[in-house]
């Protein structure tokens, strides 16, 4: 039986009807039809345009009422029939109770807890990401209808996993900007729904921008000034947020604690008003990370007076403060004449409009499109099955010598299950999680297939002593196979806890080596972690037959791990980040933001796009129980890039190695300029399986261009011995462009090399007056 399964009441339908009845007398956020005054308010008339309703509401508010709406725990306005509202809820990989806007209990004892984002990203399955978003928003709406949650969820985290030590890297979709942006847009679409301007819930992409350090060697996120080049801003850090706003139509963006080039992000008008609101046309609100305005006043000393901090933030484009700072000091800023009431109105226009789009001023929640969602829609069997499938798809097989996997219940009648993570529950859901519906631990999952002998070996991941080693070694000697579930947890990597190094903590490596020497059968290493782990010793040890990375696999993680180990599921995950050796950190301060290498200083560069040194496992790596073979059947060799008007558009850019011609993206006719590829994927193995087709591009040479970059990926299921044709479209301006040192995006002319597995295909881009694609 799974651990701590939540059993919903058997009289669930009766309970739901009761809740609906209760909601009929529970007042809505605003515009209660039982309030005779509400019928006179234009802002309560759902038939009117949102902009008109927003103007009407703001026009009725006093200044004192307005400033109390600028913070996450927005105050009630009783004379207008408005209740208070808590803006802060979280839904990173399931409805969470991290924020005060959501709580569990009563008819909602828990919610479906999906794998941590880094694990789900390893599936490289964009339709899965959107599907998870739809399920999470179903459960969020159900809890809102039951009075247990809000409708504004400050998720996802779309920062780049720039440094492998970052404690919050687990929350992100990985190190590649294209991958992170794709995840962001799909998850947001799932959360927010597809009802035009109407929102199912309001998502939020965070933390803008260049935020990926929490607490490293005395430098913390509250004091850090990220010095970032224009090139890296445009080429790396902005891409996921841009895609989130333009592709996902997200309803909110959160600015971060840190400064960027000396200016707090929440007080930088170029970032907030200029880029998010102006350049990308955000249809929504901008919120601070919690207490960020207070942080840049009190910790960073960016202004000398609190009213000046308020004025700087609101004038820069901040609409909502997570924290009390704006509610306390905004009125004084207006009295001093450094802020106008009209500036406050502008902020409220953006927040109230989102509430209107959520239906929060439309009267009874039960009358809304999603008003019928209730307890039966949370932790449903279908939702829990999706959590299991997501966990399966995110598991990455890193090594399989022999092969040692899959195990067989017939041949491996007893399995020793060892390690500090072998029987864990909450470890599997990572951080920013809620209360899971229930858990299946690795020990329980393996126990469904065969008899188990369980020994922890280490009492926790710190593994400070060898007191439990002896029993673990004895178990390995007795069993037909040994599975060690090792790795990290939130005591090692978490918010405000960056890692000291990349090795397994404490004496875990010693335990693994001693057990593998004693093991009668194959030894399998299963790793739980958010960040990469230097397991070079295990990779190179012939006694360790297989290595599996499970990430933090969610509430059903143990079942998914067992399904992979015993071959019920054929693993198809790929690493969304590079796994580096410990030595990589030698000349790599977390505080140095540069993405590109600097050989003269011994600086190695960051991520697979710019680092070209020794690795443990590369970005995009993952093997299967099948062998997939790629063949390009159709692809152009020359592509003409049409230009606007009579522009020549060419720029000769000298680098240290070559002189290459390029075209500014703004000078090219980009709209329908894409390259189509047809690739056959053959499963040459004996097992059905899903395969991720990763397409990389290496642009023409130049010091500032990436070594290669991901330009497309597709997930395809192929039966054993069968073949599937995959159609891949690559948008030239978006994915075959690079950013120069001035932060200008350009399309390099000349030969681009596409990489799909072991095969290469060259495409020559040429400037032309007309867009012609030649075979």
Automatic annotation (TrEMBL):
UniProt key word Hydrolase: yes
SUPFAM superfamilies listed in its UniProt record: (Trans)glycosidases (SSF51445), Beta-D-glucan exohydrolase, C-terminal domain (SSF52279)
Gene3D superfamilies tied to this protein: Glycoside hydrolase family 3 C-terminal domain, Glycoside hydrolase, family 3, N-terminal domain, Immunoglobulins
Main location: secreted
Record's signal peptide: 1-24
Pfam families membership: Fn3-like, Glyco_hydro_3, Glyco_hydro_3_C
UniProt GO cellular component terms: extracellular region
Cell compartment(s), UniProt: Secreted
Keywords for the protein's UniProt record, in alphabetical order: Glycoprotein, Glycosidase, Hydrolase, Secreted, Signal
Residue ranges constituting the Fibronectin type III-like domain according to the UniProt record: 691-760
BP GO annotations: arabinan catabolic process; xylan catabolic process
MF (Gene Ontology): alpha-L-arabinofuranosidase activity; xylan 1,4-beta-xylosidase activity
Name this polypeptide is given: Beta-D-xylosidase
Source organism of the structure: Actinidia chinensis var. chinensis (Chinese soft-hair kiwi)
